[in-house]
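Module 6 notes. Inverse folding takes a fixed backbone as the condition and produces residue identities as the prediction. Think of it as a translation problem where the source language is geometry and the target language is the twenty amino acids. Below is one complete input and output pair. Work through it position by position during the lab.
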């Protein structure tokens, strides 16, 4: 048994990273001190790199694949390490770490909290979530080891995802705050936003020893308050457009709408009396809206002393056309439309 163990130890004197896990990014080589001391060859496979750490400091980085003879190649620090290990201190002072050099593709990211910024168009606060994917690679193994891995024996792509996602919100917030993209422009400009955020992230991650090779925003989602505000603006815009189509100003339409809602609410504090009174008031205001000339026309065009028969005949037709548009825009009910139409026709 002793002879077999001796032969086994000789065969294992080669230092190499065999069959790393799919998500392994940085991993310590974990044989005991004697095997490190007796190792004669370092093999760095394709897409791999290796660093030697002695007394907590990176002593050498092997970033080119190949085979290195630790006994004969000009590696001065290795002599120092082997001498120290004669005193059986290797397990505490020596560390050999392999890392993945290849580009890590299509990693998913998503903001962990709402990103708040002021919408440049509507001037109200917007809450935004975003998600997408990114790719990266270790650029400086020594910096990555010191600033990210530290004392951990293994570091995975999942571990680095946490580091990246935790640092995403601030660059994304800063870019949105200064780019002047409004709510309606976010999705149409995702590529430009992603490029701007990537530029900011590169500065942060370069100090940590890795680089972002690709960064994409796949989608966005807004909070409930933002959606309520946007929907309200859309409704108001549609109402204003409908008012314009029937020749009324938006404020007047809002007043008529409020009166109509009051007339419908028969279960309120004043009961049916209030509903009836509001309905009468609504009808009077509606009549005034159709009978009163536009403010601008009254200010600039003097009223004729005696309207001609043609004008009298044409005026009810114009009111009927306006009434029809008001009904088509759903600003009055079918009953109100029929009642007012009859009133206009009775004037003929």
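Target side of the pair, the amino acids:
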């Amino acid at each position: 048994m002793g002879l077999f163990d001796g032969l086994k130890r000789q065969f294992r004197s080669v230092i190499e990273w065999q069959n790393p896990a799919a998500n392994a990014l940085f991993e310590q080589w974990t044989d005991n001190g004697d095997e490190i001391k007796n190792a004669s060859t370092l093999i760095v496979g394709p897409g791999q790199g290796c660093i030697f750490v002695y007394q907590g400091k990176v002593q050498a980085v092997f970033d080119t694949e190949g085979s290195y003879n630790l006994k004969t190649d000009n590696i001065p620090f290795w002599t120092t390490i082997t001498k120290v290990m004669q005193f059986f201190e290797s397990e505490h002072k020596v560390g050999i770490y392999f890392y993945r050099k290849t580009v890590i593709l299509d990693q998913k990211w998503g903001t962990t909290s709402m990103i708040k910024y002021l919408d440049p168009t509507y001037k109200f606060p917007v809450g935004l979530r975003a998600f997408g994917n990114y790719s990266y690679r270790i650029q400086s193994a020594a910096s990555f080891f010191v600033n990210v891995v530290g004392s951990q024996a293994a570091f995975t792509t999942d571990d680095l995802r946490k580091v990246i996602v935790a640092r995403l919100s601030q660059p994304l917030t800063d870019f949105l705050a200064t780019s002047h993209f409004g709510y309606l422009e976010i999705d149409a400009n995702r590529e430009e936003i992603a490029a701007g955020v990537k530029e900011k992230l590169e500065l942060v991650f370069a100090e940590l020893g890795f680089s972002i090779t690709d960064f994409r925003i796949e989608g966005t989602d807004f909070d409930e308050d933002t959606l309520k505000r946007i929907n309200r603006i859309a409704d108001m815009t549609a109402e204003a457009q409908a008012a314009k189509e029937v020749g009324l100003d938006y404020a007047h339409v809002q007043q008529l709408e409020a009166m109509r809602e009051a007339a419908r609410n028969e279960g309120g504090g004043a009961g049916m009396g209030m509903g009836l009174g509001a309905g009468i008031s609504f009808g009077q205001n509606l009549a005034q809206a159709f009978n009163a000339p536009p403010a601008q026309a009254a200010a600039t065009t003097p009223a004729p002393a005696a309207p001609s028969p043609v004008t009298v005949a044409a005026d009810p037709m114009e009111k009927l056309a306006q009434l029809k548009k008001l009904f088509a825009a759903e600003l009055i009910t079918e009953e109100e439309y029929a009642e007012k139409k009859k009133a206009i026709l009775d004037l003929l």
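Reference fact for the lab report: The CA atoms of residues 242 and 329 lie 6 Å apart.
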